[in-house]
Write a structure and sequence with these properties.
This protein is α/β, with parallel strands linked by helices and about 325 residues long. It contains nine helices and 15 strands. It has two domains: about 110 residues, Rossmann fold (3-Layer(aba) Sandwich); about 180 residues, Dihydrodipicolinate Reductase, domain 2, CATH 3.30.360. The two termini are about 35 Å apart.
Length: about 325
């Protein structure tokens, strides 16, 4: 396949590197308005073609697919043009700036009979895949709640809140694990550093299954945390993405309730057993993701993280942002349609 990568800021070069190393990618074109970024790519990958003109990418009939790694405000217009030009499209997270834009891109892709895929890379990572496997096997039992922290000192964004910047990672993983999107969302946040751009947020998610989740997000924290706790009826799990080796740990801990048979009988017993760290596969998630995109385009299969997958995250982001801007009210996700 011949593929163009549009946007060479923070993430674009990583996408390009992985595509360059995949046998399924025959020709690569890099596109960015900044010529200095193109020069860096050209010096590192001499065979990669470069251009500052997106229209040139659209007019090139040899290019089969376009990878969009620009700021989110450009996702919709660029993806729309690429689909209208008959290209398959991969869009980095978050999918679009609004659910309406996401719905329009999904419809356009169907009309053009082209694939559209969203860059929820964590859904291709060994720890997240292992956790999904454990949940489906019933290892944790009925899931009670999920608590996640994604905080660091920076990097502050100029165009989006901390919710739109950081929450897509956790939302996509949580929705993937549970196999559902939230029905209700609420959020509180503050703009402590840049007026009008919240840098700290606490998001609550409620699911139809009864599971609840809390996601803490911050650009204003003393240390980097990437930690998720999943509590089930049988066992508990901690996923720490900052760990080098044992990223996932399963705790045989819990509380057993027994109906009292006599007055005054203590009816709670606490269980504390072994702590196990399952073996994880070793591969680069981004390479797996890019290879999956190429395969879907070539074979006509539906991407794991397709437009609908990206849209459910955007809906939750919109609901969280709306709640945060309206004093933390509880928002029914579908009510914003």
């Amino acid at each position: 396949m011949d593929i163009a990568v549009v946007g060479l800021g923070y993430w674009g070069p990583n996408l390009l590197r992985n595509l360059y190393e995949l046998p399924g990618c025959d020709r690569l074109v890099a596109c960015d308005l900044d010529e200095s970024k193109l020069n860096k790519i050209k010096s590192r990958y001499p065979v990669v073609e470069v251009t500052t003109q997106f229209q040139q990418v659209l007019d090139d009939d040899g290019i089969d697919a376009v990878i969009i790694a620009t700021p989110v405000s450009f996702h919709y217009p660029l993806a729309k043009q690429a689909l209208q030009a008959g290209k398959h499209v991969f869009v980095e997270k978050p999918f679009t700036s609004s659910r309406r834009e996401g719905e329009n891109l999904i419809a356009l892709a169907e009309q053009a009979q082209r694939k559209i895929m969203v860059g929820h890379t964590f859904e291709y990572s060994p720890p997240v895949l292992k956790i999904k496997e454990l949940i489906e096997k019933g290892e944790l039992g009925e899931l009670f709640y999920i608590s996640s922290s994604r905080v660091n000192l920076g990097l502050h964004q100029k165009d989006v809140s901390v919710i739109w910047d950081l929450a897509p990672h956790d939302f996509s993983s949580i929705f993937y694990w549970l196999g559902e999107q939230p029905v209700r969302v609420s959020a509180m946040g503050r703009d402590f550093v840049q007026p009008g751009i919240p840098d700290v947020a606490f998001v609550n998610l409620e699911f139809a299954s009864g599971c609840i989740a809390n996601v803490q997000l911050s650009w204003l924290a003393p240390s980097k945390l990437r930690r998720t706790t999943i509590v089930g009826a049988n066992k508990m799990l901690v996923y720490d993405d900052t760990e080098n080796i044992e990223k996932v740990k399963i705790y045989d801990k819990g509380v057993d309730y027994k109906d009292p048979e006599t007055f005054g009988e203590y009816h709670l017993s606490y269980r504390s057993g072994d702590v196990l760290s399952p073996r994880l596969d070793s591969f680069e998630p981004l390479s797996k993701e890019m290879d999956h995109f190429i395969t879907c385009c070539q074979e006509g299969t539906v991407p794991k993280t397709d437009g609908a997958n990206g849209l459910r995250v955007v809906k939750a982001l919109e609901a969280a942002e709306y709640s945060m801007n309206h004093n933390g009210i509880v928002v029914n996700v579908d009510s914003l349609d």
